[in-house]
């Protein structure tokens, strides 16, 4: 049993029809409801909810304060490698991009980490492409071993791995695993991922199950906004989340909303998701799931990030570089995408404080993960 | 005065330190509430940093620091967290929280009992967060707990004393102080718990998430005091209807 069994019972077209047929009455019912279902989530995602954005934002704000208080967690990505054997038509690391590749050595990893630690980061996210000959589970494990003592949490966003490999990483002190399906539209997925291991839709779809089985503390889900209809994709992502919550009930969950950004040699987005729609999506998730963490990265503009703090976000990155060695070792290496908000951690902390929120740098103790 | 493991407290209100918009706001609320003990999550404390905002504010408030194990999923992690906390904050007081369910943060009774046994043997003053389960409370007493901390309703829910009937049994049976921990969403909930005979209450979300947290802290302070005085004075029983005559027993007067 995995999410594939549930996924197989829902057709994309039926779900789409169901979302687009939601009415104002459905939205109002969803807003007033005590316990919300995926049908309510559909209503909140639907075009019918567009006129209720202010009400949704208010509710999202209240629910977030109740659960998380006036706090925003801060994290930074640490790109370890841009080597990749996949062709993903929207990604700067795509195999077809004939640009020199870089994988950090132990020493370089420590140098980049020291920079982030010095900035004040205590939560880091290790990111790689998918190159199994050099950036394999053992390489990632080595990186976690190197960094474990310095950071409160280490999250990883790497290629899908086997359960046993996740177990090893969990034991080494990896706290969270982020794995985004990109799109739940199976046929469209094939077009965006024509070559490499990532073209296997099912293997990716079942990855969060393997992460859950390995006992990892937190699983991050998401879709890439810009590939397909964001409403339908988000519904499938939420169904995935619901299934995982019931199955791996001791695991925490986070959801991110990456919008496609310009990068070397990539295609233009198929769908433009506006700021208004992104806010609708964020609020819909919060209203549907009061307890999940919602993350907004530096892909987003200063303008949006200046205002999104009270709307339901719980974590933000700052001062990010999306290339291996980007902070100090090799600032000119190939990046995954251009970030949009390039303000420093200090700037973002000030922004959070001005909004009446407390920036949280540390919310776990990694020594507990390996006791 | 409230006596927990030989330590006396004038205030029967305990506070949490999470969810505040700033350390300053937390500090002001703590002072306004008159509390003498504030719980702080070990996971939030940065012992490596030269200065820790949260810790500095708590120290300035001159209250007993009461580390908690929030975030751990089993007894093993909890025991380790308690040891780290003892080292970091130099206290053997521990608020034991083991909630493997990250959604409703329901406490795990089995792991909590196990951890209490171990920690008590190691010399910790253990105050475990638990469901309002009277039998578990007695088992925890046997295990050496310093108090029990049953929930009124799920953490952060502000729903009040949904477990009232079970809290009554716990209060009636307990040999250790009973501190109602979670779900207290308004001063009237706190007053109600105190009227019922709870020894103390712990409040976080209702104060920290309030638009005027300092004012709310003052409201809770008074509610807890009022509830306690009412309990000690003895509340009159509730009469559902006035009864001037006694038709059923009149015959006995003849």
What topology does this entry show?
The complex is a heterodimer of chains A (371) and B (254).
Chain A: H1 3-7, H2 12-20, H3 24-32, H4 38-45, H5 53-68, E1 71-79, H6 106-119, E2 123-127, H7 137-147, E3 153-157, H8 163-172, E4 174-178, H9 186-192, H10 201-205, H11 207-213, E5 218-222, H12 230-247, E6 252-256, H13 275-288, E7 293-296, H14 302-308, E8 315-317, H15 345-354, E9 358-360, H16 366-369
Parallel strand pairs in A: 1-2, 1-8, 1-9, 2-3, 3-4, 4-5, 5-6, 6-7, 7-8
Chain B: E1 2-4, E2 7-9, E3 13-16, H1 23-33, E4 37-41, H2 53-60, E5 64-68, H3 75-89, E6 93-96, H4 109-121, E7 125-130, H5 134-143, E8 149-150, H6 164-173, E9 179-180, H7 187-195, E10 200-203, H8 205-208, H9 213-233
Parallel strand pairs in B: 3-4, 3-10, 4-5, 6-7, 7-8, 9-10
Antiparallel strand pairs in B: 1-2
Helix pairs in contact in B: 1-2, 1-9, 3-4, 4-5, 5-6, 7-9
Short synopsis of the structure:
Chain A has 371 residues and is of the alpha/beta class. Chain A is built from 16 helices and nine strands.
Description:
The complex is a heterodimer of chains A (371) and B (254). With 371 residues, chain A is an alpha/beta fold. Chain A contains 16 helices and nine strands. An eight-stranded parallel barrel of chain A has the order 1-2-3-4-5-6-7-8, surrounded by seven helices. Chain B has one domain: Aldolase class I (TIM Barrel), CATH 3.20.20.70. In chain B, 40% of the residues lie in helices and 15% in strands. Chain B contains nine helices and ten strands. A five-stranded parallel β-sheet of chain B has the order 5-4-3-10-9. In chain B, strands 6-7-8 form a three-stranded parallel β-sheet. Chain B has a two-stranded antiparallel ribbon with strand order 1-2. At the A-B interface, helix 5 of A face helix 3 of B.
């Amino acid at each position: 049993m995995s999410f594939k069994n549930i996924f197989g019972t829902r057709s994309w077209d039926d779900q789409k029809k169901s979302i687009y047929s939601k009415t104002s009455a459905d939205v109002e019912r969803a807003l007033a409801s005590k316990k919300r279902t995926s049908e309510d989530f559909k209503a909140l995602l639907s075009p019918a909810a567009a006129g209720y954005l202010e009400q949704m934002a208010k509710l999202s704000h209240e629910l977030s304060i109740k659960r998380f208080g006036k706090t925003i967690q801060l994290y930074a990505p640490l790109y370890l490698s841009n080597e990749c054997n996949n062709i993903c038509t929207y990604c700067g690391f795509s195999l077809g991009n004939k640009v020199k590749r870089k994988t950090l050595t132990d020493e370089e990893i420590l140098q980049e980490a020291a920079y982030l630690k010095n900035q004040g980061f205590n939560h880091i996210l290790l990111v790689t492409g998918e190159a199994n000959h050099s950036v394999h589970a053992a390489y990632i494990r080595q990186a976690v071993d190197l960094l474990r003592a310095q950071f409160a949490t280490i999250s990883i966003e790497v290629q899908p791995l086997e359960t046993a490999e996740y177990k090893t990483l969990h034991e080494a002190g990896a706290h969270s695993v982020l794995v985004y399906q990109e799109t739940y539209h199976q046929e469209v997925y094939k077009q965006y991922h024509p070559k490499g291991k990532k073209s296997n839709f099912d293997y990716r779809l079942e990855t969060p199950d393997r992460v859950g089985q390995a006992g990892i503390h937190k699983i991050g889900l998401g879709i890439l906004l810009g590939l397909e209809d964001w409403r339908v994709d988000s519904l499938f992502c939420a169904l995935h989340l619901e299934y995982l919550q019931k199955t791996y009930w001791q695991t925490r969950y986070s959801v991110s909303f990456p919008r496609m950004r310009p990068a070397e040699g990539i295609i233009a987005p198929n769908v433009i998701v506006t700021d208004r729609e992104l806010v609708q999506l964020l609020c819909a998730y919060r209203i549907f799931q009061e307890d999940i963490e919602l993350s907004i990265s530096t892909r987003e503009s200063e303008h949006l990030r200046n205002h999104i703090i009270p709307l339901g976000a719980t974590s933000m990155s700052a001062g990010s570089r999306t290339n291996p060695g980007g902070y100090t070792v090799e600032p000119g290496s190939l990046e995954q995408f251009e970030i949009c908000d390039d303000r420093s951690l200090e700037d973002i902390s000030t922004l959070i404080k001005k909004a009446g929120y407390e920036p949280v740098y540390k919310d776990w103790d990694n020594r507990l993960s390996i006791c | 005065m409230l006596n927990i493991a030989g330590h006396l407290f004038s205030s029967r209100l305990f506070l949490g330190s999470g969810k505040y918009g700033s350390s300053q706001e937390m500090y002001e609320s703590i002072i306004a509430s008159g509390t003498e003990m504030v719980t702080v999550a070990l996971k939030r404390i940065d012992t490596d940093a030269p200065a820790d905002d949260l810790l500095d504010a708590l120290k300035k408030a001159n209250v007993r620091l009461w580390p908690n194990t929030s975030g751990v999923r089993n007894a093993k992690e909890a025991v380790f967290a308690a040891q780290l906390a003892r080292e970091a904050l130099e206290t053997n007081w521990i608020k034991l929280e083991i909630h493997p369910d990250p959604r409703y943060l329901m406490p795990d009774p089995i792991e909590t009992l196990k951890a209490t046994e171990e920690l008590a043997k190691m010399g910790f003053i253990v105050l475990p967060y638990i469901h309002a389960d009277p039998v578990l409370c007695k088992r925890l007493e046997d295990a050496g707990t310093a108090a029990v901390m049953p929930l009124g309703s799920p953490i952060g829910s502000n729903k009040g004393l949904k477990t009232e009937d079970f809290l009554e049994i716990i209060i009636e049976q307990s040999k250790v102080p009973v501190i109602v921990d979670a779900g207290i969403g308004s001063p009237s909930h706190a007053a109600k718990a105190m009227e019922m005979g709870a020894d103390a209450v712990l409040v976080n979300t209702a104060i920290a998430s309030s638009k005027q947290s300092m004012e709310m802290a003052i409201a809770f302070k008074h509610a807890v005091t009022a509830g306690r005085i009412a309990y000690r004075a003895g509340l009159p029983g509730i009469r559902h209807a006035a009864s001037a005559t006694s038709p059923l027993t009149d015959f006995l007067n003849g």
